[in-house]
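Key result, reporting period 2: structure in, sequence out.
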């Protein structure tokens, strides 16, 4: 690297020379716009002189790289204790690998489309790609908010159409059949999910200090929506928690455990085997990322969340109360879980027919009364 004494140095990059110098502890770096060494020295000397004459203490902020924006997203997730930090870190690594060396000013619609096409060619679904684009979009929003970039540098992010939300839910006989075929250490997880609609990570991470068997309550701390909530045990839940307490493992604080350790997040192996035996699942061969593999199609654990929401509404529970139990923050999200099936539609049509028949009967009775009134003899008028 050519040196210019204490007055700066030159760095040769691809296709150009960059000048670097320091003043009052601040690093100044400029693209000198030439590949000629002599001309680069001259321009750097002029830049240093201009900096001295203007008494510039700090260099002007340049446009940050896309990687720098993504680093800020990761810090944002950590700072706010977001529960999906692990997924965000995975998305950030993917985005960094694709947009490596790019500044925030270089991102445009064409580059975003190339990223989308690459991910789709790798076999990823639109929903997964949208999650990655959302992380990138958040990086730009935070940069605009912190005034690291101007709003005109933020590109337009057009998300892909996603598949319709799943509509699977458990009928009572399906729940009982799966309960019989699951191993004993997973039966309590199924029961809790069926009655409360608890998220899988909430159920598996439940500890005994959150369970109050005396008052029959469960306190869920800092759930996905960022709020604490209390679940009151019914008879079946209380029986299940009492059994879990009797079968607890010494030294293990988790309510649901396998031996002395917590049950892992993935329940697919035992869950799928039990679902097939219970008749609510089947093995099919599908192609995933160019490779064929066997997957189980049928009821998922997350279907319990839809089941609980639907059952609470059917039982007449007010929506606001049901949302507090399931942990939904917005009515729109709860509506996605409150699935309507053919039985709901049939019941609605029966109520509509009863309403219409009642109106017809009332109209016929009213017409009959008017007809009888017209036929009734009238008193003759009195002649003066």
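The corresponding designed sequence is given below.
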């Amino acid at each position: 690297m050519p040196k210019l004494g204490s007055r700066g140095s030159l760095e040769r990059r691809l296709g150009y020379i960059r000048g670097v110098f320091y003043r009052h502890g601040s690093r100044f770096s400029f693209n000198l716009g030439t590949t000629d060494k002599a001309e680069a020295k001259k321009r750097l000397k002029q830049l240093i002189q201009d900096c001295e004459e203007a008494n510039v203490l700090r260099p002007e902020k340049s446009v940050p790289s896309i990687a720098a924006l993504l680093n800020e997203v990761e810090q944002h997730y950590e700072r706010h204790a977001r529960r999906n930090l692990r997924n965000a870190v995975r998305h950030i690594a993917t985005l960094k690998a694709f947009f490596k060396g790019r500044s925030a000013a270089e991102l445009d619609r064409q580059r975003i489309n190339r990223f989308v096409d690459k991910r789709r060619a790798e076999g990823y679904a639109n929903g997964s790609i949208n999650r990655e684009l959302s992380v990138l979009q958040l990086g730009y929003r935070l940069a605009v908010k912190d005034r690291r970039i101007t709003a005109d540098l933020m590109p337009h992010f057009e998300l892909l159409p996603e598949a319709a939300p799943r509509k699977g839910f458990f009928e009572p006989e399906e729940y009982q059949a799966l309960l019989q075929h699951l191993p004993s250490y997973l039966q309590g997880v199924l029961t809790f999910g069926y009655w409360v609609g608890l998220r899988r990570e909430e159920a598996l991470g439940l500890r005994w200090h959150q369970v109050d068997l005396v008052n029959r309550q469960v306190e869920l701390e800092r759930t996905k929506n960022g709020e604490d909530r209390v679940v009151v045990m019914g008879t079946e839940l209380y029986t299940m928690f009492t059994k879990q307490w009797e079968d607890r493992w010494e030294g293990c604080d988790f309510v649901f455990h396998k031996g002395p350790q917590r049950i892992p997040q993935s329940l697919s192996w035992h869950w799928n085997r039990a679902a097939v035996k219970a008749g609510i699942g089947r093995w099919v061969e599908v192609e995933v990322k160019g490779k064929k593999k066997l997957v189980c199609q049928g009821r998922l654990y997350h279907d319990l969340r839809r089941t609980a929401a639907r059952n609470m509404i059917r039982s007449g529970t007010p929506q606001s109360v049901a949302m507090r139990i399931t942990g939904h923050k917005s009515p729109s999200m709860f509506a996605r879980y409150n699935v309507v099936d053919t039985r709901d539609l049939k019941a609605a049509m029966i109520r509509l027919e009863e309403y219409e028949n009642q109106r017809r009967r009332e109209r016929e009775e009213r017409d009959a009364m008017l007809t009888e009134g017209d036929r009734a003899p009238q008193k003759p008028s009195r002649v003066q």
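The CA atoms of residues 310 and 376 lie 56 Å apart. Confidence is low (pLDDT under 50) at residues 1-5. This case is discussed further under Risks and Mitigation.
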